[in-house]
Amino acid sequence: MRVFVSLAAAAAALAALTAPAHAAAPLPGKGSPMVLPLADALAALPVADEDRSGYERTKFKHWIDADKDGCNTRAEVLKAEAVVAPEQGARCKLTGGRWYSPYSNSYVDAPGGLDIDHLVPLAESWDSGASGWTAAEREAYANDLAEDRSLIAVTAATNRSKADQDPAEWLPPYQPYHCQYVTDWIATKLRWKLSIDTNEHNTLVQATAACPNKPVTFTLAR
Q1: Alpha carbons 81 and 187: distance in angstroms, whole number
Q2: Measured between alpha carbons, how far is 95 from 42 in angstroms, rounded to an integer?
Q3: Torsion angle, CA of 19/17/52/161, rounded to 10 degrees?
Q4: 3 state SS of 96
Q5: How far is residue 71 from each of residues 26, 119, 133, 137, 207, measured CA to CA in Å?
């Protein structure tokens, strides 16, 4: 997909570069596509303390069948990410197929061995700003099929090892995937206008040093 930088986006990026380190310039509105160099994208994220008060997983309704085709969000991700397409039976029951799990650099040959990971976990999004969202916004976040980085099929073992940890606490076991992972993390937080905490920021600065010229593309969801 070709991504254009609007004048507003460019202004926001420039402001982000000149803003204090602890702050970030306002981003343009929902639906605005942007592309930024990785360092500028990281600088555009506001740094703030996190607060998990009041978090419950049930406040993020998932998995839904948004298009009413019989397949819920989990199934839609599995179908989209399969390297060998599974067979689809009644009520969208998937059998067979093959998937690549980038966290562990391994292949999985049955849907039951996979979890669908929220790249930025639900609890982390709550800590970072989603606590102030509407129920509809949280549902949209939990079922974000419009952005293929938001939800990812990975081995159940790596997903459960990650749990609700941010990059300061967990990175994928497969080290060559780290640049992609942190870039996608930054893009997802920008897409949903979420903040990062100090430890997360410091880890992202270190982790992105290995891939300084990588562009970050994202479209604002809210």
Answers
A1: 19
A2: 40
A3: -160
A4: coil
A5: 37, 21, 26, 21, 37
For 107, the token pair is 């292949």
Looking only at Cα atoms, what is the longest distance across the chain?
56
**pLDDT of 140-169, one tens digit each?**
999 999 999 999 999 999 999 999 999 999
Strand partners, 98: 84
Tokens of 152: 């990812």
Reported pTM: 0.87
| One-letter identity of residue 172 | P
Query: Which residues on adjacent β-strands are paired with residue 47?
Result: 196
**How far is the C-alpha of 79 from the C-alpha of 87, rounded, in Å?**
9
Inter-axis angle of helices 198-208 and 178-191, to 10 degrees? 130
Q: What is the pLDDT of residue 122?
A: 98
> How many other CB atoms are found less than 10 A from the CB of residue 97?
20
Query: In a 10 Å sphere around its CB, with 0-12 CB exposed, 13-18 middle and 19+ buried, how is residue 42 labelled?
Result: buried
Distance CA 8, CA 16 (A): 12
Q: For residues 220 and 222, give the distance between their C-alpha atoms in angstroms, rounded to a whole number.
A: 6
Express the helix, strand and coil content of the chain in percent, nearest 5 each.
Answer: 40, 15, 45
Instruction: Look at residue 94 and give its three-state secondary structure.
Output: strand
